Amino acid sequence: MDIAEAPQPVYRQARFADLEDIAAIESEVFGEPYLYLMLRQLFDLHGSEWLVAEVAGTVIGYALTLEKSGRALLFTFAVAKRYQGAGFGRALLNQTLRVCRDLGADTVYLTVRPDNHPAGNLFKQAGFEFAEHDDRYFGPGEPRDLYEYRLHP
Fold it and tell me: Locate the N-acetyltransferase domain: which residues (predicted)?
């Protein structure tokens, strides 16, 4: 499926009713997803910072960005597998970067599993720069590559 062949996504702030769809995408994409209770608590604390992409009434992707003092963390980001490779991830990322800019961030950073080549490539193609590798970012056996993106006014 190509983004040109599909209905254009609607980007909007997530609603509580979207959490089950977000959890399903999280599980499908990452295999070891956040527990629903963690997603619920993140939503309770940061609901206004969740962005979803919706096609024909179905949530196909989401992003959670946390901003503080001009730095934004792209905390979690995923697109349902059926919609991957068709430009939806790049479109959602572009919308997410706009939100970060609107929040006043000048830098966006994120982490990616080193073996998640599709995500790493997406972020590099969007202009994120490799910052460092940490073998224990999330504890023993949980390495991550850190990337940064400088937003321009």
Answer: 9-153
Q: Which tens digits make up the pLDDT trace of 61-83?
A: 999 999 999 999 999 999 999 99
| Structural domains of the chain sorted by starting position, each given as residue range(s) with its CATH number in brackets | 10-150 (3.40.630.30)
- Hey, is 91 helix, strand or coil? helix
- pLDDT tens-digit profile of 20-58? 999 999 999 988 767 888 999 999 999 889 999 999 999
**CA 45 to centroid of chain Cα atoms:** 17
Other Cβ atoms closer than 10 A to 93: 24
Listed in sequence order, the residues at least 6 apart from 21 whose beta carbon sits closer than 8 Å to its beta carbon are: 52, 58, 59
